[in-house]
Amino acid sequence: MQTDAPFWDSLVFAGIDDVDVEAVTAALGTVEVAARGRAAGSACPDCGRFSDRVHDRYLRRLKDLPLAEQGFVIRLTVRRFICGPVDCPRRTIAEPFSQLAAPHVRFTTRLNHALERVGLALAGRAGARPTAQLGFGAGRMTLLRRVMALPDPRFSTPRVLGVDDFAIRRGQTYSTVLTSVEDHRVVDVLPTREAGPLTAWLIRHPGVEISCRDRASAYTDGARRGAPDALQVADRFHLWLGLRRAVETCVAAHRDCLRNPSPSSMLPEATLGSGPPQDDTEPVGRRADRKKAAHALVHELLAQGHSRRAIARHLGWGLNTVLRWAD
Questions:
Q1: Does residue 96 sit in the same domain as residue 112?
Q2: DSSP of 107-164
Q3: φ, ψ for residue 57, nearest 5 deg
Q4: Backbone angles phi, psi at 176, to 5 degrees
Q5: Same domain for 113 and 24?
Q6: 139 and 170 inside one domain
Q7: Is residue 25 part of a domain?
Q8: 223 and 266: one domain?
Q9: Residue 10's pLDDT is what?
Q10: Which of 52, 202, 273, 301 could form a disulfide with 41 if both were Cys (CB 3.0 to 4.6 A apart)?
Q11: Are residues 6 and 91 in the same domain?
Q12: pLDDT tens-digit profile of 30-47?
């Protein structure tokens, strides 16, 4: 099926003044547009002289974003012009289409941008799966090549710098990742987790006011030498880690107090001091007394008609402990 070329010219190449549509064909779920350049000639990128002498023509096949859930392909006829000056090392000049597609690629610029966004969001295999559903299927390596071809993002020195290590190979090889704490982005990656590379980085990038790091001595020394005026603080993870360890130490020191059940009207207060013997460091006589008291306490509650689960819940013991004394 063929349709009106001027309509497709305005639809497909809107804003691209150097391309004309010659024909449009739709078949087997794919729309193909035959197009050519309309420029009179081209300037040589080496000597800068303009040429309109056509040497030959060749065909480029460019894949574009889908249209109405159909594949879209542009068959672009490209002219090659002759560069006349003898002193120019270039003999021919390929007709440029900078707005439509980069040289030597098989995707249009807009499709290439879509692949870059998918690759940045989902990477290889995970990104390749939805591209088939979106109508411009691409393999995992195609997406990864688009991501690797992107220039490194430019950044300014962060005011609050996060410093932490990560494992390239756990237990074998470690590196250091530098992040901007305020806007949550990766700034740089250092090859090791030693003080030297961190010091050198901070000297090359002055302006860090706060160094938020873990408690490694290498990072302490590197931050002190590279940014002596910066305030060093522990990061959130290590603050919580220190708090957790302090709580564990406190609980362990008072576990005998925590093991005893709270007073209740179910039993006389004198019998509530007995708990299941769990500490192997207790004197033998005291452990024996605690065993007898625990056994008597459980059987007394059973005799009162309480279930084993209710007894465990009331005393704050494990159900298996109550079952052991009950049996």
A1: no
A2: B-HHHHHHHHHHHHHH-SHHHHHHHHHHT----HHHHHHHHHHSPPPP-PPPSEEEEE
A3: -135, 150
A4: -120, 130
A5: no
A6: no
A7: yes
A8: no
A9: 53
A10: 52
A11: yes
A12: 888 898 888 888 888 888
Does 209 share its domain with 235? yes
Average pLDDT, the chain: 82
Nearest to 262 by CA among 218, 189, 202, 316: 316
- Structure token pair of residue 185: 């982005």
Residue type, 18: D
Residue 273: per-residue pLDDT: 43
Burial of 69 (0-12, 13-18, 19+ CB in 10 A): exposed
> Does residue 184 lie within any of the structural domains?
yes
What's the total number of domains in the chain? 4
Give the separation between CA 251 and CA 198, rounded to whole angstroms: 38
315 and 273 inside one domain:
yes
CA dihedral 232→237→238→240, nearest 10 degrees, is 120
Do 179 and 265 reside in the same domain of the chain?
Answer: no
State what percent of residues in the chain have pLDDT above 70.
Answer: 86
Residue 8: how many other CB atoms lie within 10 Å = 19
Contacts of 297 (CB under 8 A, 6+ apart): 267, 271, 274, 315, 325
Q: Are 77 and 141 in contact, with CB atoms under 8 Å apart?
A: no
Checking if the pLDDT of 271 tops 50, the result is no
pTM, to two decimals: 0.51
**Domain assignment of residue 213, given as a range:** 161-239
- Does 189 reside within a domain? yes
Angle at 309 between CA 308 and CA 310, to 5 degrees: 90
pLDDT at 252 over 90: no
pLDDT digits (tens, 9 = 90+) for 135-144: 888 888 989 9
Sign, CA dihedral 122-125-129-132, equals positive
Average pLDDT of 243-259? Answer: 81
Q: Is 253 inside any structural domain? A: no
**With the CA atoms of 109, 41, 73 and 151 taken in that order, what torsion angle do they form, in degrees rounded to the nearest 10?**
-20
